[in-house]
C-alpha cells in the first residue's frame, strides 16, 4: 500500500509540474527520495521563477514578469 501511495503522489506532483511548465523530474524526486533543495537550486533547475526578499519585491517581480509576457505576445 505504501508503494501505491508513493506512486500516486509522485505522478500527481509530476502532473502539476507538467501543467505549470516546471521541472517534473525534480517533482518526482521530491516525493520518491524526499529531495530537498535550496531556493537558489530551485531557481536554477526551474522549480521556481524568482526569489524575493519581501512582499513589495514579490509584487515588483510579478509585475515585471507580467510586463515581459505582454511584450512578447503579438
Supply the key terms.
74 residues, mainly alpha, 4 helices
User: Roughly how many Å apart are the termini?
Assistant: 50 Å
The average pLDDT score comes to 90
Taking all Cα atoms into account, the compactness measure Rg is 16 Å
Number of helices: 4
Structural class: mainly alpha
Question: In one word, what is the shape?
Answer: elongated
Helical residue percent band: 55-70%
Q: What profile does the largest beta sheet have? A: none
Poorly predicted parts? none
Q: How many DSSP-defined strands?
A: 0
Would you list the SSEs in sequence order as H and E? HHHH
DSSP strand (E) fraction?
under 5%
Explain this structure to me?
The chain has 74 residues and is an all-alpha fold. The protein has helices at 2-19, 24-32, 39-44, 55-72. The chain is built from 4 helices and no strands. The chain is elongated. The mean pLDDT is 90.
